[in-house]
Amino acid sequence: MAVDLLLGLQWGDEGKGKIVDVLTKDYDIIARFQGGPNAGHTLEFDGIKHVLRTIPSGIFHDKAINVIGNGVVIDPVVFVKELEGLDKFNINYKKKLIISRKAHVILPTHRLLDAVSEASKGKAKIGSTLKGIGPTYMDKTGRNGIRIGDLELENWEEKYRALANKHEAMINFYNVDIQYDLNELENEFFEAVKILKELTFIDSEEYLYQAQQQGKTILAEGAQGSLLDVDFGTYPFVTSSNTTAAGACTGLGVAPNKIGEVFGIFKAYTTRVGSGPFPTELFDEVGDTMAKVGHEFGAVTGRARRCGWLDLVALKYACQVNGVTQLMMMKGDVLSGFKTLKVCTSYKYKGQEINHLPYNIEQENVEPIYTEFKGWSEDLTKMTSKDELPKEMLDYIKFIEDETGVSIKIVSVGPNRKQTITI
Ligand code: GDP
Ligand code: IMO
Ligand code: MG
To answer: Which residues are CB-neighbours of 64 under 8 A, at least 6 positions away?
Structure first.
């Protein structure tokens, strides 16, 4: 069986967690392929609201096996807190959560390095979640990292010490005033590693290959969004992994010709948390209303998310880079009540109108050109079928489909699992 992918097409927080949870009933395996605890994937059902960080969003279902792939970076401390969160719901994670031996481990000093690196950048800071993501991927590509499989070796603590010592020297090099007690952080880390080691570590590429051979259905879950991809995003204001479809191949060991559907998720408007260019950002009461109605606060850091109109130039780019086969539009309910809606359909770039995403999209380089739509006033949150959706919304959907050349298959009208319309 082919492996289906689900990924965010904007700057993250599109609603990936919700949709993976909705789709899990159709899959045997849910596999996270990149990112780490910088992600916050929110699930809501049966009066429960739950935020997952490293654990795949299929964990609340009885049957599905959840795999953390080699492309993911794991902080044992955050991970154990996540497990504790699941204990409250009696989730038997020892049976249905397995971890790739090739996934890399976030050390306490990686988090500290993230902090000093950001502090040293001053105004040019990325706005990182400071979870140690960048430094851990740097150690991975620099061939210095510690992997989950290393934790099974007898001498792994020696390897740890050597790397932590090197990190301490690097932290000092930054010459930034930072207070920390490494002993305390290490005690917490080593305790968490003990608990982490109670879980099953696997050669996940082999596991997923055999699962495919047996005809099992697999959904790969992405974190962050395409515009945060280290290659194709708004560099340097990006994360440190490949968030796009190719990242699922390298992050799970799935061959490119084994990819099936590519589900691309986007919000009916746009948000971004952290620094970096955002051509359609709004600084007026329209943006404030989106933030308020959409509860646009980061699931990980609680930071206010910047809001703006839908950017179709960027969305088309993301569909292209990922080979999206089906779109899913989230948070359409948040747009109810706006008299006029705007969608960016091209940019003014160096005096010319262009339809593709150029190298520079900072405010001084691009000016968004908008197409306007009549808004709708109906409350969508109780609607359950396409027939009930207002005509203006169907026009909005049709326009996006025509521009991207991809059909919208799911329209989400609220955070709950049930507030999902298949069209
Ligand atoms: P993820 O990182 O892509 O999984 O998304 P987050 O969980 O960080 O952010 C999405 C937020 O929007 C969460 O608070 C969800 O509960 C919420 N959400 C998801 N879909 C909808 C929707 O269709 N309407 C509304 N109003 N909220 C939604
Ligand atoms: P999910 O999976 C939104 C952003 C940070 C920052 C930049 C780099 O919930 O969609 P990092 O911690 O990776 O060094 O941060 O990327 N960022 C996210 N924004 N959703 C996320 O994940 C994000 N993960 C990282 O805000 O701008
Ligand atoms: Mg999120």
So the answer is: 24, 27, 28, 29, 30, 58, 96
